[in-house]
Automatic annotation (TrEMBL):
PANTHER family xrefs: GLUCOAMYLASE, TREHALASE
Family annotation (InterPro entries): 6-hairpin_glycosidase_sf (IPR008928), 6hp_glycosidase-like_sf (IPR012341), Carb-bd-like_fold (IPR013784), CBM20 (IPR002044), GH15-like (IPR011613), Glucoamylase (IPR000165), Glucoamylase_active_site (IPR046966), Glucoamylase_SBD (IPR008291)
Keywords: Carbohydrate metabolism, Glycoprotein, Glycosidase, Hydrolase, Polysaccharide degradation, Signal
Signal peptide start and end residues: 1-21
Sequence ranges assigned to domain CBM20 in this UniProt record: 522-635
Entry's EC annotation: 3.2.1.3
UniProt binding sites for substrate: W160
Name of the protein this chain belongs to: Glucoamylase
Record Gene3D superfamilies: 1.50.10.10, Immunoglobulins
Active-site residue list: D216 (proton acceptor), E219 (proton donor)
Lineage: Eukaryota, Fungi, Dikarya, Ascomycota, Pezizomycotina
Reactions catalysed, as given in the entry: Hydrolysis of terminal (1->4)-linked alpha-D-glucose residues successively from non-reducing ends of the chains with release of beta-D-glucose
Family: Belongs to the glycosyl hydrolase 15 family.
């Protein structure tokens, strides 16, 4: 499926810090000389990359191929509508994915991607004031903690683990990243009028509620979550500087961020990060070992952090590396898939060892996160040109290279540095190789999980977050690093005794009549991706096709008709068949749906729908590179 004319990302071997200004700041170059690249893995990555990007775009409303009935700019967690039903837009998943897309935009300068980013921001402006079971926007911001919404932008009113307090923080970070780019590129009005009002609400929410419990990213445990606290800290730190850069301020950011930083230190138990704390009674006991903490290092990462700071849990920090070993080791003996894998090689990683969801299995995004932390750590250690190992993380390094690992500080010129950084990169690659092994060929679709004994894909299909995790992992592998958030300025050890906090904020409904500057690089695309959606009941053995008066639709010949998919067909109430084709812009196309019963070529089994031919105008409003439309029909 080709949804976009996105220029292919050029991956180089040099360390590229993708700054908001879009002018990459170059750090020290990875020599690459001692890194053995696995050609088979490289080949898979180059094929999986466009698949993952297209997989995300397909899940963005309104015209994404798998997103029929989602509003413009709203991103679905997955097109799966049954077992499980993920046909909703989650604030967390959307923010993490759009952060990845914004970083990608800095590299590709792709106009259609920028339109998607603008659409996402406009959609968040509409969502923030929607009253929901977590509360309202006015006057206390409580509604911002709602985890998910209907794909048409209305509230989800079923019971759920709510509130979830990471969403506003992650959304603020995604929007600030783009806001900085707008500022650096002369679009102050868009940064101040479109981005800041949404960000200001999210920052106010974080500053008000960070010291209250909420549900964690897996939506199961109410308490304090390391992932949430770290995302909140980062949001307030960069929120303060973003506010200043548009001539505003965030006093609550400045007063609360140091308190959250202090609180963050308390998740460390001396051996690893305890991902969930302040858990109420009634929850089943947990070790606290959780890929939550590994995912967190992808958010705490700052390319300009001058040291592998334990305070901000940088990916290369002693604590984060020690934790990486403890968490990933928890899965080594747990899954049959991981039997016989040596300690210096990556394994399939799940959420947490006590997990029972779908029987408790490895997840693609968890396994990829284990790789991504290591790539980021590699980039940091290489940039610092020094490797420090202490008693905290010696076990991590010993597992990779028992002969060379030792406590001490090793300059880039040393044999130890060369051997261990090389082992680190190979270790990271081995996690990606695990993901590769369990990704089905030939299409490379990424579901949520893969079964712990067979490796078969499981649970939600085409999970947006799985695709986003692949893209960020591969960007890190190739040295395309996200920009700085200001961790470099945090060097002081927080006070021994932490104090609680939270300050009441003020909230305002963001404007929804947003106007955007012209998008970059937006040529008129000749072909539009047109997705046909039709609700029609079928029985097993029947297939629905679309046929029409143009070659791409078979020129009214049933043998050339385009077969639709029933992936979102729901027995009781939503018999959807859908599929897309490329059609030249500007034409008026006539079409009909047909049903085939027998095998291919059985003319007698073809049933045509009654009535006049249907018509679609292959046109789209707005910038010329907007490249997809969808039609919705009923038969
Ligand atoms: C939005 O979607 C929900 C769930 O499908 C539906 O119940 C509701 O009627 C829709 N609301 C609007 C305004 O379309
Ligand atoms: C609130 O902050 C204090 C001080 O850091 C901490 O001891 C307490 O556990 C926090 N509670 C929650 C729910 O965040
Ligand atoms: C692990 O090794 C044992 C002993 O060699 C073997 O019997 C078993 O089949 C192996 N398991 C896997 C999953 O490779
Ligand atoms: C960090 O400190 C430097 C030097 O004082 C300053 O220029 C920069 O703006 C600060 N960055 C942030 C994000 O606060
Ligand atoms: C958007 O609406 C607000 C409030 O109605 C108005 O003040 C503002 O001028 C409008 N902006 C644009 C760009 O239309
Ligand atoms: C063609 O389809 C019809 C209707 O389903 C069926 O009765 C017939 O056996 C099929 N013929 C062949 C050759 O498959």
């Amino acid at each position: 499926m080709i949804l976009s004319s996105a220029s292919v990302v050029a991956f180089g071997a040099s360390l590229l810090v993708v700054s908001a200004a879009g002018s990459p700041a170059r750090g020290s170059s990875l020599s690459g000389a001692n890194i053995k690249r696995d050609a088979a893995l490289d080949d898979w990555i180059s094929r999986e990359e466009p698949t993952s990007y297209a997989g995300i775009l397909a899940n963005i409303g309104e015209a994404g191929e798998r997103s029929y009935r989602a509003d413009r700019g709203l991103l679905l967690a997955s097109p799966s509508t049954v077992d499980p039903d993920y046909f909703y837009t989650w604030t967390r998943d959307s923010a993490l994915t759009f952060k990845a897309l914004v970083d990608r935009f800095f590299v590709t300068k792709d106009g259609i991607l920028q339109i998607h980013i603008n659409d996402y921001i406009a959609a968040q402006a509409r969502l923030q004031p929607v009253s929901n079971p977590s509360g309202t926007l006015l006057p206390d911001g409580s509604g911002l903690g709602e985890p998910k919404f209907q794909p048409n932008g209305t509230a989800f009113t079923g019971s759920w683990g709510r509130p979830q307090r990471d969403g506003p923080a992650l959304r603020a970070t995604a929007l600030i990243t783009y806001g900085k780019w707008l500022l650096s590129n002369g679009h102050r009005d868009a940064a101040a009028n479109n981005v800041w009002p949404i960000v200001a609400n999210d920052l106010a929410y974080v500053a008000q509620y960070w010291n209250e419990t909420g549900f964690d990213l897996w939506e199961e445990v109410r308490g304090s979550s390391f992932f949430t606290s770290a995302a909140q800290h980062r949001a307030l730190v960069e929120g303060s500087s973003f506010a200043a850069s548009i001539g505003s301020s965030c006093a609550a950011c400045d007063s609360q961020a140091p308190k959250i930083l202090c609180f963050l230190q308390t998740y460390w138990n001396g051996e690893y990060i305890v991902s969930n704390t302040n858990i109420g009674t009634g929850n089943s006991p947990r070790s606290g070992k959780d890929v939550n903490s590994i995912l967190t290092t992808l958010t705490t990462f700052d390319p300009l952090s001058p040291t592998c700071s334990d305070i901000t849990y940088q990916p290369c920090s002693h604590k984060a590396l020690a934790n990486h070993k403890v968490v990933t080791d928890a899965f080594r003996s747990l899954y049959a898939l991981n039997a016989n894998i040596s300690v210096d090689a990556g394994v399939a990683v799940g959420r947490y060892p006590e997990d029972v969801y779908y029987g408790g299995n490895p997840w693609y995004l968890a396994t990829l996160a284990a790789a991504e932390q290591l790539y980021l750590a590699h980039a940091q250690i290489t940039r610092h040109a020094t490797l420090s190992i202490t008693s905290v993380d010696i076990a991590f390094w010993k597992a990779l290279d028992a002969a060379n690992a030792a406590e001490g500080t090793f300059p880039a010129s040393s044999q130890t540095f060369t051997a261990l950084t090389s082992a680190l990169k190979a270790y990271a690659d081995s996690y990606v190789a695990v993901a590769q092994k369990y990704t089905p060929e030939p299409y490379g679709a990424l579901a949520e999980q893969f079964e712990r004994s067979t490796g078969a894909p499981l649970s939600a299909k085409d999970l947006t977050w799985s695709y986003a995790a692949f893209l960020t992992t591969i960007a890190a592998r190739d040295g395309e690093l996200p920009g700085s958030w200001g961790a470099a300025n945090i060097s002081s050890v927080p006070p021994e005794t932490c104090v609680g906090g939270g300050v009441a904020g003020t909230y305002t409904a963001p404007p929804t009549n947003l106007t955007w500057p012209d998008v970059v690089n937006c040529p008129v695309i000749d072909d539009l991706h047109v997705t046909f959606n039709v609700l029609t009941r079928t029985v097993v053995g029947q297939d629905i096709f679309v046929v029409g008066n143009v070659p791409a639709l078979g020129n009214w010949n049933v043998d050339g008709a385009v077969k639709l998919q029933a992936m979102r067909y729901r027995e009781a109430d939503f018999p959807l068949w859908f599929g897309g084709v490329e059609l030249a812009r500007g034409q008026r196309v006539e079409y009909k749906y047909i049903r085939k019963d027998g095998g291919a070529g059985n003319e007698s089994s073809v049933v045509w729908e009654d009535g006049a031919n249907r018509v679609v105008e292959v046109q789209v409003q707005g910038p010329g590179c907007r490249d997809a439309i969808a039609v919705g029909d009923q038969w």
